[in-house]
């Protein structure tokens, strides 16, 4: 059993498709172990995406992530990290496989609907960034 962090990004929250995205997780063997809606501060977004600090798109990424509330959840299940990445589809929605969350709900490489941890190690760090142990059930 693994846990991974999912973020429904501001574009998808604005489009009112939180439930449709959560359904993709639940219908594919992932369970919601924790969930909350939050407005990230600039400092939150910069800290969360610190690994991308040197990338040319870092400023745009931070602006986008604070442009509205996000829904953060801990997904639990067998191979949860890889399963979530598979359900999300490629970073650029134009390259995302049909039927994936990004193919169906994302507009562009920055407004790409969802975030998902890319390794078990990062999942642990990202979950701890947002949730206390007692909030994960
Ligand atoms: P992910 O793991 O599929 O989310 O992709 P990455 O870890 O490579 O990038 C993190 C996030 O940065 C992506 O989800 C995008 O929102 C954003 N991003 C990646 N590449 C670009 C880019 O070329 N331009 C912009 N504006 N944003 C990007």
From TrEMBL:
Amino-acid positions noted as binding ATP in the UniProt annotation, renumbered to this chain: 9, 57, 85, 91, 102, 112
Enzyme Commission numbers on file: 2.7.4.6
Chief site of localization: cytoplasm
Active site: 115
Domain Nucleoside diphosphate kinase-like: 1-137
Subcellular location, record wording: Cytoplasm
Pfam families cross-referenced by the UniProt entry: NDK
GO biological-process terms attached to the record: CTP biosynthetic process; GTP biosynthetic process; UTP biosynthetic process
Catalytic activity: a 2'-deoxyribonucleoside 5'-diphosphate + ATP = a 2'-deoxyribonucleoside 5'-triphosphate + ADP; a ribonucleoside 5'-diphosphate + ATP = a ribonucleoside 5'-triphosphate + ADP
GO molecular function terms attached to this record: ATP binding; metal ion binding; nucleoside diphosphate kinase activity
Cofactor(s) named in the record: Mg(2+)
GO cellular component labels: cytoplasm
Keywords: ATP-binding, Cytoplasm, Kinase, Magnesium, Metal-binding, Nucleotide metabolism, Nucleotide-binding, Phosphoprotein, Transferase
Domain of life according to the entry: Bacteria
Cited function: Major role in the synthesis of nucleoside triphosphates other than ATP. The ATP gamma phosphate is transferred to the NDP beta phosphate via a ping-pong mechanism, using a phosphorylated active-site intermediate.
Family: Belongs to the NDK family.
Subunit structure: Homotetramer.
Protein name: Nucleoside diphosphate kinase
Organism: Nitratifractor salsuginis
Gene: ndk
């Amino acid at each position: 059993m693994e846990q991974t962090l999912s973020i429904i990004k501001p574009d998808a929250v604005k489009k009112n498709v939180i439930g449709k995205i959560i359904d993709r997780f639940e219908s594919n063997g992932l369970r919601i172990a924790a969930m909350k809606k939050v407005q990230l501060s600039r400092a939150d977004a910069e800290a969360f995406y610190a690994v991308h600090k040197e990338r040319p798109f870092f400023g745009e990424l931070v602006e986008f992530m604070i442009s509205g509330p996000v829904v953060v959840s801990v997904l639990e299940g067998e191979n949860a990290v890889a399963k979530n990445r598979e359900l999300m589809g490629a970073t650029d929605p134009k390259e995302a496989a049909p039927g994936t969350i990004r193919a169906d709900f994302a507009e562009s490489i920055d407004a790409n609907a969802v975030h998902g941890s890319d390794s078990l190690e990062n999942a642990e760090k990202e979950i701890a960034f947002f949730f206390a142990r007692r909030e994960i059930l």
